Amino acid sequence: MHTNLIPSQPVDDARVPLRRRVLAAFATLVLAGTAGTVAAAPASATGDAPATAEAALTLVTCSGQESTTYSPGITNTAALVTITTSATYGPCLHVNGLQIATWSGSSYSQGQTVAGCTELELPEDETSTSVIQWSNGQTSTWEYTAITQNVAGNFVIVGVGEITDGLYEGAIAQRELVLPGLVEALQACATPTGLTGVSGLFTFTVTAI
Fold first, then answer.
1. C-alpha span between 119 and 191 (Å, rounded)
2. pLDDT value at position 6?
């Protein structure tokens, strides 16, 4: 089980590979998109072939923010650091049958690892698990694969995967997180105090399949 440096991964951070943890902190996830089910239409009286239509039900849409801090700040020389990440989901619009509710959610993780700034420039695909605590007392365990890209000087991480346990189990979730200021972050790495934190905004969507 893996977890990213950025908030949204309340699992054992100490076991997370270095590159993943650092890149996750600079990645961004605005998971927008839908997953659909295909339904067959009945054949017409004239014997025409049945038509198919793609339909998808969006269960949750959220905006949110993630923040990650490094203590001590990470520099161009790898060293042992404590990484703390937290995410706030909300406002989130939840649809349950004909009922619509507005909830919020959060996630938190903290762990130690050996980290340095040199790996911030080496994005890679990641497989991670995140547990979201909803304000109604329920949780959602989300297992996803995230793709990291450098877009116009920002790290953008898009993750897609299945809710494997808890609320919305079996649905597909998507998130896109944008962490701005890659150039400025790398410049901070060259200072004595190093890079002490990053943060960004995301969107999150859960769709029935």
1. 17
2. 35
DSSP bridge partners of 178: 201
Q: Which residues of 36-49 are buried (b: 16+ CB within 10 A; e: fewer)?
A: eeeeeeeeeeeeee
Per-residue model confidence as pLDDT tens digits over 170-192: 999 999 999 888 888 889 999 99
CA neighbor of 174 nearest in space, from 146, 135, 201: 146
Q: Whole-model pTM?
A: 0.67
Q: Please name the residues in contact with 200: beta carbons below 8 A apart, sequence gap of 6 or more.
A: 6, 28, 65, 66, 177, 178, 179, 180
Residue 1 and residue 11 in contact, taking contact as beta carbons nearer than 8 Å:
yes
pLDDT (tens digit per residue) in 121-140 = 655 577 888 899 999 899 99
Q: How far is CA 118 from CA 23, 113, 133, 157, in A?
A: 10, 15, 33, 18
